[in-house]
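User: I'm putting together notes for a lab meeting next week and I want to include a structural view of one of the chains we've been expressing. I don't have a solved structure, so I'd like a prediction I can at least talk through. The sequence is below, exactly as it appears in our construct file.
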Amino acid sequence: MLQIKIIGTHTNMPNKIDINCDMGESFGMYKMGLDEEVINHISSANIACGFHAGDPMWMRHTVKLAEDQGVAVGAHPSFPDLVGFGRRNMNVEPEEAKADLVYQIGALQAFTTKKKLQHVKPHGAMYNQA
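Assistant: Thanks for the context. Below is the predicted structure for the 130-residue chain, given as C-alpha cells.
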C-alpha cells in the first residue's frame, strides 16, 4: 500500500511529501512484493514485524535495503495472525496487545543500525480496531 502524507504545516517550515509503503511482507522462501524496485521511489517504509507477514531474515533484509537507500524505517506490527494476514479482528486484553506491540517494535528496532525507528504504523485489524 502506498501512502502520501504532508509533513510540516508551520509557515517557516517547508512542506515535504512523505511517500510511504508497506514492505518486508515476504516470508521464508515466499517472496512477496517488489521491495527492491519500490524502495527507490519512497521516503519511508512500514516494515512487517513477523506477526502478519515477514520473518527475522526478511526484516533484516528490508531494514538494510531501506537504510542503504536513505529511506526512513518504521515498524508495521499486527495481531498474531499469519493465516489471516493480520486482517482478522481479535479480542485481546490491552496488556496482551501492548506486549505484542513492544515485542514486534523491539525486534524491528534491533535490526536498525541506529537502534531507532521513525514511526509505528499498526497493520490491518490492529489499525482498524485502534
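A couple of points you could mention at the meeting. The mean pLDDT is 92. Residues 26 and 32 are 5 Å apart (CA to CA).

User: Perfect, that's what I needed.
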